[in-house]
Amino acid sequence: DVRINNKDEGITMIRERIGGMKVLVVLDDVDHKDQLDVLVGGRSGWFSGESIIIVTS
């Protein structure tokens, strides 16, 4: 069971668990640009260059 209390904890958790890995990320029900910015905005190096990110609204 993973509990994330704020944005900074979430960023740290992602970086520690999957940083640099080749991943498939699916973001469903993204309504606002800021939701996407939190995950991928200015975060180069989080995932391998071969990763795929799919965003739906």
UniProtKB/TrEMBL annotation:
Superkingdom of origin: Eukaryota
Gene3D superfamilies attached to this UniProt entry: P-loop containing nucleotide triphosphate hydrolases
GO biological process: defense response
Descriptive protein name: NB-ARC domain-containing protein
